[in-house]
Design brief:
alpha/beta; binds guanosine-5'-monophosphate; five-stranded parallel beta sheet; four-stranded mixed beta sheet; globular; 204 residues
Amino acid sequence: MTHNKGGKLIVFSAPSGSGKTTIVKHLLKQDALNLEFSVSATSRAARGEEEHGKDYYFLSLKDFKQHMKDDDFLEWEEVYRDNFYGTLNSEIERIWAMGKNVIFDIDVVGGLRIKRKFPERTLAVFVKPPSVEELKIRLKKRKTESDEKINMRIAKASVEMATAPRFDHIILNDNLDKALLEAENLVMDHILKPFNTDNLNEEE
Ligand code: 5GP
């Protein structure tokens, strides 16, 4: 697909439990930012109140793999074993057709991939939890995953933390109000920045 059109891309990546989803939800409420959430596809089961088409497009593993074969993804990752997640090209097209900027809540590898594909129009933000210990406490409190799944997420967190310096900005989430304000300012600055699509060389 061609990307010489459309708005800005805002990526929020972080270890699971660092608070990035809270930040992204807050940003979506700010009308001035003109953001729309990029609904990812995933092969994992829905949990809690999650809705198909709103939180994720919940696909069977078979359907997910078919989209991979058909080259329908802008990026995809096997974030946890047998749990695939990916951004469909059609999702970006849908949001750009609405005249809006796209905000992503995706893992660090996917986030950096989008930054690499669209270096000019992407703002890539890493949300850092105060510590891995704090992350564990937050995940346990959330009570949405089994102990085994929590341990899997914690193990991955250390690896993810090491990628932080490759992002445009790091927000330390030790105080939520401060983190929300910092995120709002960063996104506003990025959206206001002029950008000339003609000078872009974004295609891989
Ligand atoms: P969860 O299962 O907690 O909803 O998400 C697990 C991880 O997958 C999170 O880090 C989340 O940001 C990431 N994720 C969600 N959607 C995508 C996506 O489309 N692509 C990639 N690469 N990661 C995603």
